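Inputs:
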Amino acid sequence: MGSRRPSPYGEAVAEQLGLELARAGVVVISGLALGIDAAAHRGALNAGGVTVAVMGTGVDVIYPSAHSVLAEAILSGGGALVSQFPDGTAPRRHNFPARNYTMAALSDVVVVVEAGEGSGALITAEAALDLHKEVMAVPGSVFSPLSVGTHGLIRDGAGLVQNARDVLMVLHLGAEVLDDPLAAPAGLGIKLPAERDGILFHLSDVLALNASEIARKLQLPIADVLGRLTSLELEGAVKRHQGGYVRALRRGKDRA
Amino acid sequence: MFGCVDSCVLAGLDVRLVRVEADIGRGNDHRFFLVGLAATTVKEARERVRSAIRNSGLEYPTTRLTVNLAPAELRKEGTGLDLPIAISIVLARAHRPAPPRSAFLGELALDGSVRHVDGVLVAARGLRELGFERIFVPAEDAAEASLADGLEVIPCESLIAVVNHLLESGVIAAASPRPGTIALDSPLEHDLVEVHGQEEAKRALEVAAAGGHHLLLSGPPGAGKTMLARCLPGILPPLELGEAIDVAQVRSLLGELPRDRPLDWARPFRAPHHGISMAGLIGGGGGLAMPGEISRASHGVLFLDELAEFQTPVLQALRQPLESGRITITRSGGSVTYPARFTLVAATNPCPCGWSGDGVRACRCTPGAVDTYHRRLSGPLLDRIDLQVSVRRVPLEALASEPRGETSAVIRERVMTARARQLARQGCLNAQLKPARLRLLATLPAVSRRTLERWSVQRGLSARGFHRAWRVARTSADLDGLDEIGEQHVLEALGFRLQDVAA
C-alpha cells in the first residue's frame, strides 16, 4: 500500500514488487485505489498472478470508477474483490480506515511503498502492528515528502525492502525461486545518442526538476533544453511530473 | 425664429449625427419643449440650459421654446447635447445661421461653464469621417479631441466664450494639433531583470510576445506568476499610432482618459479579479453595452489570475474574442462591437491547495479534487492557449544565487525583430495565422513534421492543438531568424504543452 499520488519511482517499485512477488506465488493484497495500490495489482496481473482487492465500498461499487477495467482483470485472473460492507455501499471517508484494518488482517506482511506524513497507509501499518503482522517499508529519497512516512516506519523498526527477496525472506518462502528480483538495472534501459544522455544523468526518478534548473546545470540555453527534454519525452525516457521532469523508469513487463 | 447646430451621440464606437433645432415661438407661455426621443439625462438639459444661458448674461426667450433633436427615431442619451441645445437657442434669437461643417459637444454647468463629457475622441473621429471640419468641445477634452487628426478643435471654457466666438467670429484659438511623433520611452515599472531564475517562464513570455500567443502559467502561490505576467507589456513593442488611438477610444468612452496625456504608448495591462461578472469582463450594461475588461486590454495584456476560480460562463464568453479579436454585445439599445485583441496570460495553481510539485510544502489534495480542478480548467479555453508553462517557487535563501538574466529591453529587441519578420512575411502575427495560410507560409520540413505527427499520435492531439504547436514552432524559428522550422523549434513548442498527458 501507499500514496494515491505516488512519484513515478514509487509506482515503478510497487508494480515491480507486485510482479516479482506474484511470480513467486504470493497473493498480492491491495486496496484498488489510485497510485501505489493500482500499480501493485497491475504488477501481479502482469505476472499472471493472483491478487485481491480489499474495498472500502460494496463489492458492486467500483471506486474509483476508472478502475472497473482493473477490477475486471483481477477477477478474470483468478483473484477476488473483497469487502466487509454490504452491496451498494458508496465511498465514504470513514469506511476506509476500517477497510485498511481488514486489509492488514488478511495479510501476512504489509509493505508500504510511498507514504507522506499522516498518510492512510500509516494507519494500516499501525493496524498491522496491533495484529502482530510484519510491517516493511521501501526507502526513497530523503528529499521527497512521500518518503517521510516510510522512513519513519523504518526508523521505528520496520523491515527495509530493497527487492522482492526481502519480502519473501520474511514470508519464509525460498528466495531461490527468483532469478534476480529488482536488481538495479545496468543502464537506464534506454539507448540514446550520446549527446542526449547528458540530461538524463542530471534527472532524478523521484524529484521533479524543471527545465530552468537543468539548463543552469548544463549551461545550455533554455530553448535548447526544452527541445531536448521534449525529444526525450517522445522517446519515453523522461516524464512530466509535478511541473517538472523526472526520469521514466521502465516498469514491469517493459523492463523484464 | 429658428436656429440649428450639429452634434452627435455615441453607440459604442459608432457615431450618430444629431441635428439640434431650436424654434422660438410667439405664444406667451414660457414653456420649453424638448422633443426627439430624449432619455432622462437629455431631458434634464432643459434646466441646465436655462440657468446657463441666464447666468451667462444672455437673454433667455420669454416666449414658447421648442427644441427638436433629429432624427427623432434615434434614442439620445448623455449630457453632451447641453452645449448644442444652448447654442441653437442663442443662434435662433440672434437670427444667425449654423456655422458650416461644425459640431458641438459639451455639458453645461448652471453658471454657464462647459464640463467634460465622455467619448470626445470617439465623437471627434466619427464626425471627421462624416465630413465635419470643426468641433467645439469642453476645454478639458480638447487635447483628447485633437488626437483625431484633420479636425479643427475649439476648446470651450464657457457658454459665453463660445457665443462670443460665434457672433464676433474667431476669438478662441484652436487647440494645437496632435504631436506627430512618439515621444517617450518611459522606464519600465516591471523589468524581467528583476526576476531571478525562472528561465523557462521567461522564454515562454518571449515566445508569447514575439508571436502574439496566449500563455498559461501554472505554479504554487508565491512562485512569481503575477510578476512574470506584469513583465509582458515591457517586452512588447510600444503601441503603433493606430493602436494607441484604439486604446484611447475605449478609455475615452469610459471617461478614463487622463486629461494631460490622452495618448499613451505603453501597452495596457488589465488584471481583473476572479469574482468579475460577465458584463464586467466582456462588456455590458443597460441600453447600449459599455466596453469591458477585454476591450480595455485590447492591444495589451489581459491577466487572469486564479483561472479556475472564474465562473465557467464568464470564461466561456472569452472564446469569441480570443478567436476574432473583437466582441459584439447585444443589449436592449442595440448591438455594439468593441475591439478585444489582447494577449491572454492566465495563471493557475497546480492543484486546489496550490502546493503540488513544490519542493518544500506537501500537497494535501485528494486525487479526486485535483482531477476536478483540472477538468474545470481544461476544455475549449485551455485549447486556445498556445503556451503553457510550470513556474516553480524559488526559495528565499536561493533567490540571491539565482542568475538575473537579461533586461526587458534586450528581450524586446529580439521580440521586435521576430515580429517584423512575421509582418513582412504574412502581414499578421503567427498566432493569428489561419490553418490554410499556416500550411502555405510555415512549411514544415519532413523531419520536423514527423516529430510533430509522432507527438500528436502519442498524445492524441486535436487538429487545433496540432496547428497551435505548429504556430509556436513558427515563432520559435522567427526568434532564431530562420525561414525554415527546424526540429528543435517543434520540440520546444511541444515542451510548452502541459495538458498533453501521455497515455
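Chain B has three domains: 2-167, 192-425, 433-503. Flag for discussion at group meeting.
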